[in-house]
Specification:
Number of strands: 12
CATH superfamily of the largest domain: P-loop containing nucleotide triphosphate hydrolases
Number of domains: 2
Helix content: 40-55%
Strand content: 5-15%
Structural class: alpha/beta
CATH architecture of the largest domain: 3-Layer(aba) Sandwich
CATH class of the largest domain: Alpha Beta
Oligomer: single chain
Distance between the termini: 71 Å
Number of helices: 20
CATH topology of the largest domain: Rossmann fold
Length: 495
């Protein structure tokens, strides 16, 4: 072409896409003159980032030779383009020599590579936009608009991830620096926590707070208080939220955090009612019946006013696929920020693929997806899980790792596995008749167990396992710190 631009075809639409042929020529020339250029640009630009298909083939072949410790020059590459019609149009093998003559300096190579990459991304964005428009224009029964939105978000996110080139090996010095920064953040926090405090002091001591990129499983049998504990933690974190400048200079949460809560079982209104019950200290059953005194109603309204700006976001869409959970979490982080993500509960989520290979495989895909979300968004993800019925057949009802439904994948993918256990629930159902001699013994034991619960840490990748005792107020569905006198004699396993 007169302007020196070449492209995949003479199509006007193709050539209207953003590109820079001269930058491609200069980078290829530098690569053919000095093969060390490849190490500088390999993490930034790939063959398919070149606009001209001939340039893409030259880069691809040169890269393959360099990776095999073979020389890539105009002379050595000549043999690979003997029958290449595209190169023939540009002047044949002599074009390779002309590229070498247009070489740039070694130090400028990365800048040129970044320019080529940026233009490639712009072209891809344009093509994605066209594809979205074309698909939206076709009204088809099996292509719902909401599904198209999720697909578009996934494609755009994948495209964005291509630009994260600072991956791969890092020096031990850099790793040490990051470790020191985490330790310093822990040192500067009250209580010595590196992670986000849960609001339960004894639990925080065991976990060190909630850590970014961790997948935590909170499991229990029905009526143990899984959802209650999750909402308590979510509320505590959101209530403590304060934005500011972090030690690393970035803006974000310096206390508490922005919380995302997927409520796949309960409605947002029911979840909000639970939180308001805790905040106002009005029993949840009274709220449901509307059986409140004037003072209780006043406290309830005041709690609602105090919490209306609380950074707690609830999504109560049922049966969400893991891909949609990820897409909506990304959107929340982009729009409002995101520091902790809750899923209630794991078994109600759906795998991304519709092909069913058994429930165990589906759960495995879900847990792997949740772990990927935790790492991708750099937030702790807390997923609730059911336990199998085999717990009920044992004399000691305390749950174990083997009690997890489809336990293999859950146990494997989780960084922390916690169980909620209330012995009071089981002992209450053993009540003998009042004229039974054992009634007094039962009543005494009930008094000892009343208002107490256990959070059993069955697995912790970076810390000890054992039991944390907490207080439980059933009328408010509230977990709180237990008096220190009750915290004695807790078993710790550092194995």
């Amino acid at each position: 072409m007169a302007d020196g631009s070449t492209g995949p075809s003479d199509d006007a639409d193709a050539h209207s896409l953003p590109h820079n042929i001269e930058a491609e020529q200069a980078l290829l020339g530098a690569l053919l003159v000095n093969n060390d250029v490849y190490d500088r640009v390999a993490a930034v630009v790939k063959a398919d980032h070149f606009f001209d298909p001939v340039h893409a083939r030259i880069f691809e072949i040169a890269a393959e030779r360099i990776k095999k410790n073979m020389l890539a020059t105009p002379v050595t590459l000549k043999a690979f383009f003997g029958d290449d019609a595209g190169l023939a149009e540009l002047g044949g093998p002599a074009y390779l020599a002309r590229l070498a003559g247009a070489a740039i300096s070694l130090f400028a190579a990365r800048d040129y590579a970044q320019l080529i990459y940026d233009l490639a991304i712009r072209r891809e964005l344009i093509l994605i936009g066209h594809a979205i428009a074309d698909k939206a224009a076709r009204v088809e029964i099996d292509s719902e608009p909401k599904d198209q939105i999720v697909e578009a978000e996934q494609v755009l996110y994948q495209l964005g991830e291509q630009g994260k080139v600072d991956k791969g090996f890092q020096s031990f010095r850099r790793a040490i620096t990051e470790a020191v920064n985490v330790a310093n953040a822990a040192y500067l926090r009250d209580g010595g926590l590196a992670g986000i405090p849960t609001g339960l002091a004894d639990l925080d001591k065991w976990l060190g707070g909630l850590h970014n990129s961790d997948l935590l499983i909170l499991a229990g049998r029905p009526s143990m208080g899984k959802t209650a504990l999750a909402t308590n933690l979510a509320f505590n974190i959101a209530k403590a939220y304060r934005r500011g400048t972090r030690p690393d200079g970035t803006e974000g949460a310096v206390e508490g955090g922005v919380v995302g809560f997927y409520s796949l079982e309960m409605s947002a209104e029911q979840l909000a009612a639970r939180i308001l019950s805790e905040a106002s200290r009005v029993p949840s059953d009274q709220i449901r019946r509307g059986d409140m005194t004037e003072d209780e109603m006043r406290r309830f309204i005041q709690a609602a006013k105090d919490l209306e700006n609380c950074p707690l976001f609830i999504d109560d869409t049922p049966a969400l696929p893991i891909s949609t959970i990820a897409a909506r979490a990304r959107r929340l982080k982009r729009q409002h920020g995101l520091d902790v993500l809750f899923i209630d509960y794991l078994q109600l989520a759906r795998p991304a693929s519709s092909r069913s290979e058994g429930r165990v495989q589906e759960v495995s895909e879900i847990t792997q997806g949740l772990k990927a979300i935790a790492k991708e968004l750099a937030v702790p993800v807390i997923a609730l899980s059911q336990l199998s019925r085999q717990v009920e057949s044992r004399e000691d009802k305390r749950p174990q790792l083997s009690d997890l439904r489809e336990s293999g994948s859950i146990e494997q993918d989780a960084d922390v596995v916690m169980f909620v256990f209330r012995e009071e629930y089981y002992h209450e159902r053993l009540e003998p008749p009042q004229n039974d001699p054992k009634y007094v013994e039962w009543q005494t034991k009930m008094g000892e167990l009343h208002g107490k619960a256990e959070v059993i840490i069955g697995k912790q990748r970076h810390g000890p396992v054992g039991t944390v005792r907490v207080a439980f107020e059933g009328q408010f569905t509230r977990f709180s710190n237990l008096a220190k006198s009750y915290q004695e004699g807790i078993a710790v396993d550092f194995g």
